[in-house]
């Protein structure tokens, strides 16, 4: 039996962690067909099936699971050994893989990323924007950005971007003229609400706070979408009320296309945080990014 290629082993590990060829291909910047061929080549060389494939999922066989147990720490050691060389450079090199929410990719990261990459030309950033809540480490990312309630307690978290954010409720002047302005969140049951559904399928609940009072509303209305552009456009067109990040509607409010409502009940919360595993060795590109955002805070 010939020795398997390290790249084939790495491809197998990526597919197994992602539970799919397409998902792994997106993370690795490769084609699903090339990953499939790499896994097939590895199985042929080892003479054993490593992955059970169906149209809906990819799962490790018993042999595959045993191989993953040995490969994962081995590749981590190799990565650590190679990255140790980065300590002798003026600026580290390598790839930094981040998983972030859509709001952060649009409103927080653009200016930060531009300055960071200009400072560290040897680093390549792979940025995946998704509102799904995943195990970023298992999916092959170096770190993620999330809000406090979504960060596991065994992770190290560093503030990035605004320290506080808020949700804003708003509607078009024409809508309010036709239907009246709600004065209390409970009145929203009598209004058309533009709802947001996450990629996971979960419908976002509208949560309002005033002092110790917390009111949660399940929005009902003519539109449910995962696109903020669509929901904002429809709110401006007078279809109903929208409740979303301030950053998404601020410009429309400033020019009068939308009117803020229920202002005393708007919810404020802690801004996003970069989080990563608590471990002795942090890869050079990630360490450089951590130091960069800490220096700017």
UniProtKB/TrEMBL annotation:
Gene3D superfamilies documented for this protein: 3.40.190.290, Winged helix-like DNA-binding domain superfamily/Winged helix DNA-binding domain (1.10.10.10)
GO MF annotation list: DNA binding; DNA-binding transcription factor activity
Organism superkingdom: Bacteria
Keywords: DNA-binding, Transcription, Transcription regulation
Domain HTH lysR-type: 4-61
Family indicated by similarity: Belongs to the LysR transcriptional regulatory family.
Protein name: LysR family transcriptional regulator
């Amino acid at each position: 039996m010939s020795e398997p290629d390290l790249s084939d082993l790495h491809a197998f590990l990526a597919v197994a962690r992602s539970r799919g060829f397409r998902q792994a291909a997106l993370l690795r910047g490769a084609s699903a067909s090339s990953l499939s061929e790499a896994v097939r080549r590895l199985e042929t060389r080892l003479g054993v099936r490593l992955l059970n494939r169906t149209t809906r999922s990819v799962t490790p066989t018993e042999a595959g699971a045993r191989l993953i147990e040995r490969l994962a720490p081995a590749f981590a050691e190799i990565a650590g050994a190679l990255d140790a060389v980065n300590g002798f450079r003026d600026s580290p090199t390598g790839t930094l893989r981040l998983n972030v929410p859509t709001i952060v990719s649009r409103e927080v990261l653009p200016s930060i990323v531009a300055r960071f990459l200009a400072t560290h030309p040897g680093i390549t950033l792979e940025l995946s924007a998704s509102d799904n809540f995943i195990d970023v480490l298992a999916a092959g990312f170096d770190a993620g950005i999330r809000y406090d309630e979504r960060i596991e307690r065994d992770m190290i978290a560093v503030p990035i971007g605004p320290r506080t954010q808020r949700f804003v409720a708003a509607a078009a002047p024409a809508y309010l003229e036709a239907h009246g302005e709600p004065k209390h969140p409970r009145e929203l049951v009598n209004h058309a609400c533009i709802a947001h559904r996450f990629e996971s399928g979960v419908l976002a609940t509208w949560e309002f706070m005033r002092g110790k009072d917390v009111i949660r509303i399940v929005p009902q209305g003519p539109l449910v979408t995962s696109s903020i552009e669509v929901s904002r456009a429809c709110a401006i067109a007078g279809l109903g009320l929208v409740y979303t990040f301030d950053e998404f509607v601020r410009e429309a409010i400033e020019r009068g296309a939308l009117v803020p409502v229920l202002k005393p009940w708007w919810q404020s919360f802690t801004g996003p945080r970069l989080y990563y595993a608590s471990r002795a060795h942090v890869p050079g590109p990630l360490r450089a990014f951590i130091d960069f955002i800490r220096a700017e805070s």
